[in-house]
Amino acid sequence: MAAKQNKILISVALALLIALAAIPALHTSAYGRTLVPVVPDMPFVHIENAGVILYERHEGVMRPLTGLPQTYFAHVVAESGEFFEVIFYDLRGFVRQSAVTKVDFEPVTKFATGRLEVMRGGTVPIFARPTHLNASAIHYTPRGAEHVFYGTLNGSIPYRDEDGFSWFFIRFTNAEGNAAFGYIHASNVTASAIPPNVIEKVMVYANDPPTFTPPDFEFPGYLTIVFIVALSIPAVLVMILLFKKPKGKQEPQRVPRSF
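Given the sequence above, the corresponding C-alpha cells read:
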C-alpha cells in the first residue's frame, strides 16, 4: 500500500514539475530578444538646469512665456536659428539650443505640470503678462479655485512692495468656457512643487519596428493551459506504466471454501 502511495506522489510531482518548467521556457521565447531604446524621428531635449525659459514669438520678437520644470523634456519639432521650436505638454514655443541638451532616446515621462490653489481675497486677477502695471485683468478667479501651472516667470516690478516678482503661468477656463492661459501672482496662491523626473527610456525589442508605445507582451491564458496539459501527458503515461502489471503474472483466483 505504501509503495502505491509513493508511486502516486512521485507521478503527481513529476507532472507538476514539467508544467511549471514549461511556462518560463515559453515566456523566454517571447522575452529573450534584446531591448533597445526607441530613437524618435524628432528628438527630445532635456531640461537639465533650472531657469530654462520657453519663449513665444510675438510680433517677430522672442519674449519669455514661462520657466520650464527642471529634469523634464521638450519635444523638438523644428530648428530656428539659435532656438529649437518645441512642444511642452500642450504648449508650443521656443527654447535656446544652448540651454538644453539633445538626447537620442524617447523618455517615458516627458512633461510635467503642477497644481496651485487660490488662497487670497474674494477674487484674484489673472493677467495676460507677468505684470499688473498699466494692464487690465483678463479674468478673475475665486478663492479656493485650483489651476494647472507650467512654471514661473519674474515680472519687471513687484506686484506689491512686499510680495516679490514671481508669477505663475497657468491654464484656466475663461468666461466663454474655453481653455486660456495667463499669469497669477505667487503671493495669491499656494502651489505644490513639481517633483523631479525619474528618467527612463522607452524600450522596444531590437527586431520590432519602432513605436512610441513600449510592447506589453502577455502570453494568452488559454495557450498556457494547452501547453500545461500537453506537457503533463508524458507524466500521466509514466504513472500508467508504473501501475501496469507485467504480463504473465496474474493474481491467483480465489476459490470459495466450502464448509
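Residues 24-31, 212-217 have pLDDT under 50 and may be disordered. Try to locate this feature in the C-alpha cell string yourself.
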